[in-house]
Write a structure and sequence with these properties.
It is a single chain. By secondary structure, the protein is of the alpha+beta class. The protein contains 18 helices and 28 strands. The strands form 9 sheets. Strands 13, 16, 17, 20, 24, 25, 26, 27 and 28 form a 9-stranded mixed β-sheet that branches. A 3-stranded antiparallel β-sheet has the order 7-8-9, with helices on one face. Strands 10-11-12 form a 3-stranded antiparallel β-sheet. The longest helix has 21 residues. The chain is globular.
Length: 613
């Protein structure tokens, strides 16, 4: 192990010692390292308490109430419960079989949905009583609430394809969708993010005319004139955190424009805290007051007002929002936000309470939505190991290029190509790397009419100690697209070499030099997959592999790495990144396979063969 690795270990240990190390998460009284798998499982177990029979779930019918000691529920609420069952099952909190197992609970819900009373127009009622399964009031449901339920049923169908017939009957046959669903054309220019969320459900079930509606809505939203909230630009639209977080956790793949919007909201909430000293986690939710009992807190509203609270009420920081943003972005602010709210709330025995307002008043209501979102967030954290690498943070390729380009202006970003001479620990870069970088730069130039892209050689940005073999990174401020493999680009070498205290790599895909003299290969630690250059019987290259990955490094700037095992792999990966919008890139990394054209000796017929979570 080189000396540089010991330096990384020392930094990691220092961060751990300097940070809050142990936490107690209420009812689950275990000491745990903040952000570890144990931490998030403990939080999930506390949230899951809400959905126990005799607490949030009626022990006779198997239906749930939207709040503790509140026995009524809407279609939106039922969608929340179904998604909570999916998340609890995937987290291992809910067994498959037996009384009150996953199958038993789902069977009770599907039976209700197949037999529930409908209005004379064939529409579900707005509210039902969990104690009887009967309607509560005469009002019919509406498209937003039912869309939430449809999305949860679609995710259930993905998990359990054997339930497809029952689910499709409930959604497509039993409900009168002609009366329920709006004209899809009327939503194409919507600027309400709730519409985007549920339109994704209508698209998922293949309703006619809905295929392009979600993309049209998000395009419309992000193209609206911007307003500035505490120095952060946001589009003038109807933006609330509840559907933003639900979209992130429930809708796949994630649109890159949506990810840009979510990132901007995160920045705006932190900026508001920095300006006012008030922890900010806006959402819709219960107030714990007699009037109003429920409030909508908008990040932006239609008229361009920002951080607008509907009704005369002291703003509330909602735990569900704090936890959601924490698992996605994991910044010092989101860490402190969650820690503050948890420090104020009492130990949860029936699920988590709503949050705390800016006067310090605890909002002591316990509802399904808060605990449902916390379950989804905990599942995301566990599935993606988002908190296992303190020096590096996972990002998602759906963020590209919006984390580098905001409102047509490059966000302090550069394309970095390897030097054409041997330098530091790496050899000379090939001309093909420069061609690949030019492809990406040309595409991004079309996205940035208001600014100039910059470029650099890797040798300008590193210092190499030939005695120890250490590479020191000299730039701690620039976002970068790094082109070229760790054999020829010193920055690729630098990031590829980083390890945590357990000697585990910090990047999602690593380039491995075969010390036995065989072929170098790409290795995906999360799946164990290995990719090597493919050749025919005569030794001529047939296919090459490349990788595109994105992460935030220890300096909190965004790094996109794109390279191949050989020249064809690099060029093929660069072509895919250039055409990112045609590939719906997502995940922390993708592996690109490119066949080699025998006559032209350049890559053709590329495909993505693995998406790394």
């Amino acid at each position: 192990m080189k000396t540089g690795y010991f330096i990384v270990v020392a930094i990691l240990l220092a961060l751990l010692i300097a940070s809050p190390f142990y936490f107690q998460l209420g009812n689950n009284q275990v000491k745990t390292i903040r952000g570890s798998k144990t931490y998030w499982m403990a939080m999930a177990e506390n949230a899951w308490e809400y959905y126990q029979p005799g607490k949030g779930v009626n022990p006779q019918t198997g239906l749930h109430g939207a709040g503790l000691n509140y026995p009524y529920f809407t279609s939106w609420d039922l969608g929340t419960y179904i998604q909570a069952l999916i998340d609890a099952r995937e987290l291992g909190l809910l067994q498959k079989d037996g009384p009150w197992g996953f199958d038993d609970r789902v069977a009770k819900i599907l039976y209700f949905l197949k037999t529930r009373n409908l209005t004379s127009d064939g529409l579900p009622y707005l509210t039902y009583d969990s104690r009887t399964g009967q309607p509560y009031g005469d009002a019919p449901t509406f498209s937003i609430d039912e869309g939430k339920l449809y999305l949860a049923l679609y995710n259930l169908k993905l998990l359990r394809p054997d339930l497809t017939q029952d689910i499709d009957y409930i959604v497509k046959t039993r409900n009168n969708n002609t009366a329920l669903l709006p004209d899809p054309n009327s939503w194409l220019s919507a600027t309400d993010f709730y519409c985007y969320y549920v339109a994704s459900a209508f698209k998922a079930f293949g309703f006619e005319g809905w295929d392009n509606v979600p993309s049209s809505i998000i395009n419309t939203i992000v193209s609206q004139p911007n307003v500035t909230a505490y120095g952060v630009e946001l589009p003038t639209a109807h933006i609330c955190n509840e559907p933003l977080l639900l979209t992130f956790f429930e809708v796949k793949p994630r649109d890159s424009k949506f990810m840009w919007l979510l990132s901007q909201v995160n920045l705006a909430q932190e900026a508001r805290y920095n300006a006012t000293g008030h922890y900010t986690a806006f959402s819709e939710g219960n107030t714990g007051l007699g009037d109003p009992t429920y409030v909508y807190e908008f990040i932006v509203d239609y008229d361009g007002s920002t951080f607008y609270t509907q009704g005369a009420i002291t703003p509330i920081a909602y735990l569900k929002v704090a936890v959601g943003f924490d698992v996605i972005f994991n910044t010092p602010y989101t860490n402190a936000l969650v820690d503050y709210i948890l420090s104020v709330l009492p130990a949860p025995s029936n699920g988590y309470q709503e949050g705390v307002d800016e006067s310090g008043r605890v909002v002591d209501v316990i509802i399904d939505r808060t605990n449902g979102i916390i379950l989804s967030a905990a599942r995301y954290a566990v599935d993606n190991s988002s908190f296992s690498t303190p020096l590096m943070q996972k990002s998602d390729l759906s963020n590209f290029p919006h984390v580098l380009i905001q409102s047509g202006v490059t966000n302090n970003s550069a394309i970095v190509i390897g030097d054409s001479n041997p330098h530091g620990p790496v050899g000379a870069a090939q001309t093909i790397d420069a061609i690949g970088g030019m492809m990406i730069m040309e595409r991004l130039a079309r996205q940035t009419p208001k600014s100039t892209l910059t470029s650099a050689l890797d040798s300008w940005l590193i210092k190499f100690d030939s005695g120890t073999g250490n590479v020191t990174f000299l730039d701690s401020t620039t976002n970068m697209i790094v082109v070229g493999s760790p054999e020829v680009n010193a920055l690729s070498y630098y990031y590829n070499s980083l390890r945590n205290q357990f000697a585990e790599p910090l990047v999602p895909v690593i380039f491995v030099i075969d010390s036995t003299g065989g072929f170098n290969y790409l290795y995906v630690p999360s799946s164990g997959s290995i990719y090597t250059t493919e050749s025919d019987a005569q030794g001529n290259p047939v296919a090459d592999y490349g990788v595109i990955m994105i992460f935030q490094d220890q300096f909190q700037h965004y790094i996109v790495m794109v390279y191949g095992l050989g020249a064809n792999g690099t060029l093929g990966a660069c072509q895919v990144l250039r055409d990112y919008d045609l590939w719906s890139l997502h995940g922390s990394a993708v592996i690109v396979k490119s066949y080699v054209d025998r006559l032209e000796n350049h890559p053709s017929n590329s495909s993505i063969v693995e998406v790394v979570p």
